Amino acid sequence: PWLFGIALFVMSILLYSQAATVRAIMPLGIALGMNPWMLIALFPAVNGYFFIPNYPTVVAAINFDRTGTTRIGKYVLNHSFMMPGLVATIAAILTGLLLIQIY
């Protein structure tokens, strides 16, 4: 299941759309016989569009910040939204996995 979650994350980076990622990849999970509850728990992995900083809201936030704390780092994949986005996505997936274990 973790590999499927990584596939969801990578595809959402490439497709820049949560809905397109779900439409393209979730049927594969069903065809592979994954538990539907597991697919629901892995759903937050489709929020990877923040990873490459070219989404309009990310670029706007960088441009609007006058303090200079919101920026793209020396490397393209080293920006202010990287760590909060990864932490939130991982926490949401872990919460989903915990909930399917409880129920």
Task: Describe what you observe in this structure.
The protein has 5 helices and no strands. It has helices spanning 2-15, 18-31, 36-41, 56-64, 82-102. The longest helix has 21 residues, at 82-102. The chain has one domain (2-102).
Provide key terms for this protein.
elongated, 62% helix, 103 residues, mainly alpha
Count of the domains: 1
Q: What value does the average pLDDT take?
A: 88
| Estimated radius of gyration | 15 Å
% residues in beta strands: under 5%
The run of helices and strands is HHHHH
What is the overall number of helices?
5
Which outline best applies? elongated
Helix content estimate: 55-70%
Low-confidence parts lasting 5 or more residues at pLDDT below 50? none
Largest sheet: none
**Number of E-state strands:** 0
**Span between termini:** 18 Å
- SSE class: mainly alpha
